[in-house]
């Protein structure tokens, strides 16, 4: 196993009506003037934003608001947020929403705590030296950004989607009320469950440094999300299932499921990022559409892990050769995706790239990862193109 | 399930030679003058203390040292540490050792950050309002104090052993090098594994608010420790097994394995605390000596959990009635304790209390928990006496 660092300082307040604690949490972490950053109008229509501002008003905490964070959040809005915060002397960021609002807020936080263009960090040009403190009220279980060090921003010019990670951006607190996720469209719920599982699976399919306890936690998390995703297909208002998925979303991406390994594979994410950048598809659906093809392309290079996954997560029968068991596990995972109405190829995802577009995505992906990447199997531009083609 | 808070801010640096990072970590958290607090002479004899002070000297960080923290650490040394720190203007505590040194340092930290007698907190008289910042270099995988909010101190007068918990005392960083645990006596290693499993089991055997994901993580953790405890019986120098157990020790008591439940049962710990106070037995061994009797006394009141434990942790055959499966799980756990040379009753633990001593322990235990306690089954003084008697 490898040495590792584990750092998850985010204070999680989990349960019903926990958003009512926002003012005391903001005070605890020293916020006096907030930017409340959110996405679409759902937090307005649901009354959540009003409940939050009422709570802040009662506590005498000032704030300005900025909506409009879209899925695959845009750099333009980040710049807008930075300017607004400077003008209003904001000293604390409050993201109300899912990964888009949180990631956008993290980028705004980097912009405020560092000189120069914030895109430099996402463009691998330099490292951030800080981030304005950030709190979260989570309304969507998916990206795990509420406890993670990572954020993903899309630059509109050229539709370049890039991630940047540093401990500075880990939220100070995360308010997690599963009830806030109950009104999500079924498609978004399923996308979220897929994203959660993929955060763990990216760390699971590796060729280096695995720990037994990390595997046991990862497998338990994956079985839990699989089961509760199916429950939510039938009964989207099941509080317990919402809670299981919501908490799993944080644990899947705060570092816990990667302790001791080599950092993970992450190629499914990188391949999907190009899809997301070019077609603006939902991130979770894009991952589901790519994963099966990726898995078949790499499994022979990471066979023991695919066998373990098949037996301990997908619970396939322990029968036949290792290759047969591994393939049965991949098929079972694709069957699961279909059972929660997720796509398992690009056509089902609703995109039909031309050969030139496939080549463009493979090229951008290869450039984005610095030439080659992957732990289950190292992939180069040619491999990326092969996977994109086979996933049509 | 219940609402919960989850807060584990400790920065964990895990792996070989990580103690060499102590100076940069102390600086990161603002320490300029340290108390290095440790237990017996083993950290001196092993050269660890010298390596730590060399590292601090090179970085120009001042320090004073205080050894002598014993298992079931004493209040007297806590008072001594507080006085020393005041005299030397210490602003950061560094515990080098296991739970005894860490718990003792936490109590010193409370004493420095609060007016009045530090024992008040352990005596349930008032709540702490802060704690001097604390870092840890861990040399023993057991109590989980390196990430936990808890500490246990024994007042010499009357041998009163009490715990106090608050987030203020969660260490700022924990340096965890599994190699530092390789020279432990086998008995201490086994005691540590028992303590780690019991921290999770105390949270597992409850009658309220369980989450599927918490159960899955707890069961995975327990299976991992069970397997690696057996490995360490055969090969105490197995690095990977040491690492699995060490990381499990932190996760077993940082809150992760209790999210969503009612707080846990904890009566095995409370019953053992009286044994530890009166006879100064090793904490892990005391827990093993009590658990089986406790389990047989309460299992009918918490049957579904004992069945789940039997099947998913002890992996007994799914055959017979629920009661039979539950009892088979308890027996399997006792067999496991014996296989790592842990006692399963008081005689094997090496203590033979008189009837008066049993009554005294039951009385002190009942007073200590405020009359009654337990989630698997609520126990009163009479029940505690029954369990002590049956565990002879």
Overview in brief:
2 copies of one chain form a homodimer. The first copy, chain A, is of the alpha/beta class. Chain A has 2 domains: 11-180, 3-Layer(aba) Sandwich (Rossmann fold), CATH 3.40.50; 184-390, Up-down Bundle (Dehydroquinate synthase-like, alpha domain), CATH 1.20.1090.
Structure notes:
In chain A, 51% of the residues lie in helices and 12% in strands. Chain A has 392 residues and is of the alpha/beta class. Chain A has a six-stranded parallel β-sheet, with helices on both faces. In chain A, helix 7 packs parallel to helix 9 (239-253). Chain A folds into two domains: 11-180, Rossmann fold (3-Layer(aba) Sandwich); 184-390, Dehydroquinate synthase-like, alpha domain (Up-down Bundle). Chain A has helices spanning 22-28, 42-45, 48-59, 75-88, 99-113, 119-122, 186-204, 212-234, 239-253, 267-279, 283-298, 303-312, 322-339, 346-349, 355-368, 381-390, and strands at 4-14, 33-38, 62-66, 92-97, 134-138, 150-155, 160-165, 173-176. The model of chain A has no long low-confidence stretch (mean pLDDT 96). The A-B interface holds A 1-9, 11-16, 18, 211-213, 216-217, 219-221, 223-224, 227-228, 240, 243-244, 247-248, 251, 256, 259-260 and B 1-9, 11-16, 18, 211-213, 216-217, 219-221, 223-224, 227-228, 240, 243-244, 247-248, 251, 256, 259-260.
């Amino acid at each position: 196993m490898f040495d590792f660092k584990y750092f998850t300082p985010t204070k999680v307040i989990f349960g019903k009506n926990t958003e009512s604690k926002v003012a005391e949490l903001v005070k605890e972490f020293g916020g006096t003037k907030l930017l409340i950053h959110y996405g679409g109008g759902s937090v307005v229509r649901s009354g959540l934003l009003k409940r939050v501002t009422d709570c802040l008003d009662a506590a005498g905490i000032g704030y300005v608001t900025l909506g409009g964070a879209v899925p695959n959040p845009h750099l333009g809005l980040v710049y807008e947020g930075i300017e607004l915060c400077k003008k209003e002397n904001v000293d604390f960021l409050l993201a109300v929403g899912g990964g888009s609002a949180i990631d956008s807020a993290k980028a705004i936080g980097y912009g405020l705590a560092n000189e120069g263009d914030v895109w430099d960090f996402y463009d691998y040009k330099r490292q951030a030296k800080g981030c304005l403190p950030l709190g979260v009220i989570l309304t969507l279980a998916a990206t795990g950004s509420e406890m993670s060090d990572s954020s993903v921003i899309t630059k509109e010019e050229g539709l370049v989607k890039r991630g940047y990670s540093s401990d500075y951006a880990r939220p100070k607190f995360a308010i997690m009320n599963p009830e806030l996720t109950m009104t999500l469209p079924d498609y978004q719920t399923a996308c979220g469950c897929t994203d959660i599982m993929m955060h763990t699976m990216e760390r699971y399919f590796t060729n280096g440094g695995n720990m037994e306890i990390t595997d046991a936690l990862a497998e338990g998390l994956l079985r839990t999300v699989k089961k509760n995703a199916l429950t939510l297909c039938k009964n989207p208002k099941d509080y317990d299932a919402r809670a299981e998925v919501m908490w799993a979303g944080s644990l899947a991406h705060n570092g816990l499921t990667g302790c001791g390994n080599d950092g993970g594979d992450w190629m499914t994410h990188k391949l999907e990022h190009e899809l997301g950048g070019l077609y603006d598809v939902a991130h979770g659906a894009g991952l589901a559409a790519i994963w099966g093809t990726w898995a078949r392309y790499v499994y022979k290079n990471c066979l023991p892990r695919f066998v373990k996954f098949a037996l301990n997560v997908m619970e396939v029968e322990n029968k036949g050769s290792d290759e047969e068991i591994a393939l049965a596990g991949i098929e079972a995972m694709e069957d699961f995706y279909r059972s929660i109405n997720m796509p398992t190829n690009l056509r089902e995802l609703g995109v039909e790239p031309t050969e030139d577009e496939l080549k463009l995505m493979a090229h951008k992906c290869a450039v984005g990862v610095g030439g080659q990447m992957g732990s289950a199997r190292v992939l180069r531009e040619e491999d990326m193109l092969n996977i994109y083609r086979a996933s049509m």
